[in-house]
Amino acid sequence: MTSSASCAMGLLSQYKPGAGGAEARGAVMEAGLLSAILGLVTVQGETAMLDLDLQKIAGFWREVGVASSQNLALKTPKRLEALFLTLSGHELLVKAAYYSSGSCETENIVGSEIDMSGTFVFPGHREIQVVDTDYEQYAILRLSLHWQGKDFRVLKYFTRSLEDENGPGFWRFRELTADTGLYLVARHGRCAKLLKEGSSDCRADQPRARPGVGNLPGTCWIES
């Protein structure tokens, strides 16, 4: 674990409501989202795909593996189970499904494409980049956040299937993470299943993330 990541984790553990101003609370909330989605680990050396067909990357993706030096994902209050990606022009709409305290929670965020390699930027200095995919079975994504002058990155392995975990993409993922360590995600998958089945609609009064807004987006609950 890098010293920068340790520092960020320290900020999270030391934070108490009222101990700082709105700016400090916002920074810690941003770090908390990083902890939930990225795991606060650094992965380097991977490059984006050169001939990416963005339209084919859309749809459901279940998280199977995370490149990490420690099993930090076990310690996060919200555990990512799946993503649903939708392309609209040069924007990428991401619906993320989490398992949190016995319930399923979703978050909606909107990112803008910054180049033709499949890199999208999101509010809060976050990025998603497609490293490798065959479109039909697996995708390897690099998720990153620039926080307090430091870059945090993690490599994640996704599949289209709710069941298959050791497909052809798994071996590619192992190649990319050979020097990093590997944590395979063990989850019941209920939230991922609900997301794939399309049974997770936000309440009408729930706030949505808006492009260009730097604050954290609102969340909605999957009724199950």
UniProtKB/TrEMBL annotation:
Entry's transmembrane regions: none
GO molecular function (one): small molecule binding
SUPFAM superfamilies recorded: Lipocalins (SSF50814)
Pfam family membership, one: Lipocalin
Record domain Lipocalin/cytosolic fatty-acid binding: where: 58-163
Source taxon at top rank: Eukaryota
InterPro entries with a match to the protein in the record: Calycin (IPR012674), Lipocalin (IPR002345), Lipocalin_CS (IPR022272), Lipocln_cytosolic_FA-bd_dom (IPR000566)
Family under the similarity heading: Belongs to the calycin superfamily. Lipocalin family.
Descriptive protein name: Lipocalin 8
Organism encoding this protein: Canis lupus familiaris
